[in-house]
Amino acid sequence: MKIFYTKAALSKNLKTIKPSKKIGLVPTMGALHKGHLSLIEQSIVDNDHTIVSVFVNPTQFDNVSDLKKYPRTLEEDVNLIKSLNSKVFIFAPEAEDLYGGDVVSRKFNFGAIANEMEGKHRKGHFDGVGTVVSLLLKAVKPTHAYFGEKDFQQLQIVRKLVEIEQIDTTIKGCPIVREQNGIALSSRNKRLTQEQFEAATLISQSLKEAKKLFKTTSINKITNHIKAKFNASSHLELEYFEIANVKTLKTASRKRKGNEYRGFIAAFAGEVRLIDNMALN
Ligand code: AMP
């Protein structure tokens, strides 16, 4: 199992790989779970080499306390990856090394998709994501990079990023992995109390219900119904529920033939912010 802590060490190793070989990159912030492992497994199937980056990116956090409390479990992460496949490389740099100087975001113009949902509620978040993903793609130069639909808006932002920056990497979206009770796996779930964890099932249940209602009920009625359910919850505070067009990510008010829609939720369980989404048609 090889772990690289600097760009220089990674680069030295990458030079030993023949240019004809396929390289898969799986960017993560660590505290790995089965959702991350599904991305790593897909990369192993598709590529000759897989590199998992483990890096808690400070510039994508709009909340200092969230950054401080983000779980950091590198040793466990390494063991988990090792048990999956010992040939996977791990890249776990320090921020100063990855950024090559000041740890600050660049400013991107991702267009309208960056102004919806997460972009609206987490100022500067997508500039931080764009900055770190760009740095990682330039350091690794992978043929493929893997991102979860769990962060659906982020996935669309990354697709836009490679287009804007003309980066020669194919971006692959992978389905959301869920707990048995429906909750989307997330590193942040580790911070939930048992009570909050059980209450958080409302998030995926609401999305499932929205999906069931979608054929027969107006977007407005579904939205009001879901909001009312969150209002009645004593453990969860809804930040947003949106039904949005998959391409534009704009909130939809009416269903239009031929368009695809997803439901998106962000909600707080205490201090822990959880997000989830689901295809509705
Ligand atoms: P994170 O470590 O939270 O930044 O996530 C790293 C990657 O794993 C991102 O592309 C996420 O979308 C993806 N991911 C996180 N949770 C899940 C999940 N439950 N199912 C599938 N992918 C996930």
UniProtKB/TrEMBL annotation:
Q: What is its EC number?
A: 6.3.2.1
Question: So where does (R)-pantoate get bound?
Answer: 60, 154
UniProt key word Cytoplasm = yes
**Chemical reaction(s) catalysed:** (R)-pantoate + beta-alanine + ATP = (R)-pantothenate + AMP + diphosphate + H(+)
Binding-site positions, ATP: 29-36, 148-151, 177, 185-188
Q: Looking at the keywords, is Nucleotide-binding present?
A: yes
Subcellular localization, as worded in the UniProt entry: Cytoplasm
Q: In which pathway does it act?
A: Cofactor biosynthesis; (R)-pantothenate biosynthesis; (R)-pantothenate from (R)-pantoate and beta-alanine: step 1/1
The GO molecular function terms of this record are:
ligase activity
Binding, beta-alanine: 60
Matching entries from InterPro entries are given as: Cyt_trans-like, Pantoate_ligase, Pantoate_ligase_C, Rossmann-like_a/b/a_fold
Checking Gene3D superfamilies in the record gives:
HUPs (3.40.50.620), Pantoate-beta-alanine ligase, C-terminal domain (3.30.1300.10)
Which UniProt keywords are given for this protein, alphabetically ordered?
ATP-binding, Cytoplasm, Ligase, Nucleotide-binding, Pantothenate biosynthesis
* Taxonomy, superkingdom: Bacteria
Where are the active-site residues found?
Answer: 36 (proton donor)
Subunit details: Homodimer.
Additional information: The reaction proceeds by a bi uni uni bi ping pong mechanism.
For this protein, the record's PANTHER family field holds: CYTIDYLATE KINASE/PANTOATE-BETA-ALANINE LIGASE (PTHR21299), PANTOATE--BETA-ALANINE LIGASE (PTHR21299:SF1)
Q: Which family does it belong to?
A: Belongs to the pantothenate synthetase family.
What's this protein's function?
Catalyzes the condensation of pantoate with beta-alanine in an ATP-dependent reaction via a pantoyl-adenylate intermediate.
Name the chain's protein: Pantothenate synthetase
What organism is recorded for this protein?
Patiriisocius hiemis
Gene symbol here is panC
